[in-house]
Amino acid sequence: MRCRRCGDKAEIYLKRHNAAFCNDCFQVYYSEQVRKNIRREKMFGSKDRVLVVVSGGKDSMALWHKLLKEGYDVTAMYINLGIGDYSDRSQEIVERFSEEYEAPLIVRNIEKDYGFNIPRLAREIRRSTCSLCGTIKRYLFNKVALDGGFDVVATGHNLDDEAATLFGNVLSWQEGYLARQSPVLPSTHPKLVKKVKPLFTLTERENLAYVLFNGISFIHEECPHALGASSILYKEVLNQLEEASPGTKQRFLTNFLKKGRKNFEACSETPDLRECSICGQVTTAEVCSFCRLRQMAEKKKMKADLWAQESENPEQ
Amino acid sequence: MRVIFRMPFKREVEVKGVKTVKQLAEELNFSLESHLVLRGGKMLTPDEALKEDDVVEVLSAISGG
Asked: Less Cβ crowding at N or C end of chain A, within 10 Å?
């Protein structure tokens, strides 16, 4: 196959665009997509301070690299979630990138900074690890952005992520979630920072190609807790449809955003937002879900310490 | 030809009689929508010819969460 732009030997074929590209022309295509998304969706401008949240995976590393190359004022944030070797290896990758590109990086460690271990707490309070991770990440993205004076939080969500989320929400007709799904989540409270997804029209495969073409290190393996996740099944189903009818994923998502979402707006409740009585972050309850988790972790720890003391001194 | 799958787990298979990347994907039942095929670190398009003594890597792009 020959490159559609320059006629050289192609290295990647994008079936949905019926186009093959060489390395250089793929980079042009990728840059155009990211620039168009940022501009058209009014995500941020050259003067805005952007906090890009990175996991060490291909999508967030591609986003970090691209935004730096485009000259935006970018700082990355990595959260070590304490998921064994997986977290330590991904932190190493992120730190190495930060050094190599002299790119500012903020690291938070859930266990060291906040005193709880996610897999253990998930077992103790019988909640799924992924749901705890989600609560913690959402809280910290906003807190770090707010405390650091950032204008916007950018995440590496891609076309496959967004199409799979939409597919899941349609399967169970989650009207509220459907009303809110968007590449831009505006700030709805002075203490809530705007969130954006500049890669929402690029597939996972295109992000993988981007990191490979640019020699960017990333963590290959999957989070051990994500194996068997329903989002992976949805992505596989959507890819089967895509093979039979190229462009299905993008049509599904972009036509929903253009034509479908507005029909769910009436279902979107405007929650009564207030500030957490402990930490001051925005919540719908008296105490935010992050502080409730911390309280639960502390209670469990106190009980365990007491039990350990009693077993050491059974006579007392 | 030796085919090495890298993600999510490493595994290797031997395949015979496959002539192109597209045929390899059909033979080993993986989707070219969600995978990249590399030889010598270079990505290959579906029409690329493969030889019996080639070593190719197949990388999955799907991630969960």
From this structure: C
Cα-to-chain-centroid distance, residue A310 = 44
CATH of the domain at B31: 3.10.20.30
Q: Which residues contact A197 (CB under 8 A, 6 or more apart)?
A: A154, A155, A156, A157, A162, A183, A184
pLDDT of residue A122: 86
Q: Is A279 annotated as a binding residue?
A: yes
For tokens 């502390």, the residue is A298
User: Would residue B33 count as lying in a domain?
Assistant: yes
Range of the domain at B25: 2-60
Interface membership of A226 toward B (CB under 8 Å): yes
Answer whether A236 touches B (CB < 8 Å). Answer: yes
Restricting to A residues 14-53, those with a Cβ less than 8 Å away from any Cβ of B are 15, 20
Residues A272-306: tens digit of each pLDDT: 899 999 999 999 999 999 999 888 888 887 887 88
End-to-end CA distance of chain A: 80
ipTM: 0.95
Query: Would strands B35-39 and B55-60 be described as parallel, antiparallel, or unpaired?
Result: antiparallel
Nearest to A11 among B7, B9, B42 (CB): B42
Helix axes A159-171, A204-213, angle to 10 degrees: 160
State how many domains chain B has.
Answer: 1
pLDDT surpasses 60 at B20:
yes
| Alpha-carbon distance A236 to nearest alpha carbon in chain B (angstroms) | 8
Residue A20 has pLDDT above 80, yes or no: yes
Q: Looking at chain A from residue 149 to 178, which residues have their Cβ under 8 Å from any Cβ of chain B?
A: 160
Residue A228 scores a pLDDT above 70? no
Scanning B3-62 for CB atoms below 8 A from A yields: 6-9, 31-36, 38, 42-48, 59, 61-62
**pTM assigned to the model:** 0.93
Looking at the complex, report in whole angstroms how far the Cα of residue A209 sits from the nearest Cα belonging to chain B. Answer: 8
Task: Give yes or no for a contact between A38 and A198, defined as CB atoms under 8 angstroms apart.
Answer: yes
